[in-house]
Amino acid sequence: MAAVILQAKGLAKAYGGLKAVDGVDFALNAGEIHALIGPNGAGKTTFVSLLSGRIAPDAGQITLAGQDVTALPAHLRVRKGIAYTFQITSIYPRLSVFDNVALAAQSQGARDLAGAVGVALGRVGMQGLAGQEAGTLSYGHQRLLELAMGLALKPKVLILDEPTQGLAAGEIDDFGALVRSLVPHTTVLMIEHNMEVVMDLAHRITVLNFGRVLAQGTPAEIRANPAVQAAYLGTDDAAA
Ligand SMILES: Nc1ncnc2c1ncn2[C@@H]1O[C@H](COP(=O)(O)OP(=O)(O)OP(=O)(O)O)[C@@H](O)[C@H]1O
């Protein structure tokens, strides 16, 4: 059996009376691409925010490679190896592409900053854009820059929140190839609405619904699961 790198047990978070995440047990296997899917409002973003430490749980436990990280703030979890790619707003638009990635690399204490930036930009094919002001990049390139910033953190677990949203078809293909190139060295957990991407890329899928795990399995198992079809795959949202 594959080693579990990140695990959640009984994870819960409520907003007022709304149980956004309601007692989730979850295990991320080292080296896999794992997709987190579910209808709008199912709790996906809340769940990965709990994993990354952006928000604190009401109950439950999170372990990284067996070590309890539940009480650690987000920046210390990043140091331990959990990187949650920021939404695009976290890019500094007036800084160059190079400087944006350098800030991420610096936060990890990279000794050879230029080298670390070069490697991260190389992974996403953006070395040629290092000098460009980040705010002037195309949307697709801004998403890739975000990914390069995540990679500069040298994560064990990279959490991506809707990484293909707003990308053109060709850019989605490139993104898929890139994610494949990251594993098994890095483990990838991604929230993704594009079912084609999910079915093509993910080794395993977890389906959330109303804050609970509805199903877990391989793409073929998830596709064949009647509860999933009823809750999610049959909706217009999934066909988008
Ligand atoms: N800060 C907050 N305050 C109050 N309610 C919140 C907050 N964040 C999320 N919620 C609610 O918690 C539930 C889960 O939201 P969450 O964003 O985690 O779902 P999601 O599966 O990521 O949805 P989507 O696919 O639309 O992004 C929703 O009903 C949402 O309205």
TrEMBL record:
It comes from the Bacteria. SMART domains: AAA (SM00382). Residues 6-235 form the ABC transporter domain. InterPro entries: AAA+_ATPase, ABC_AA/LPS_Transport, ABC_transporter-like_ATP-bd, BCA_ABC_TP_C, P-loop_NTPase. Keywords: ATP-binding, Nucleotide-binding, Transport. GO terms for cellular component: plasma membrane. GO terms for molecular function: ATP binding; ATP hydrolysis activity. This is ABC transporter ATP-binding protein.
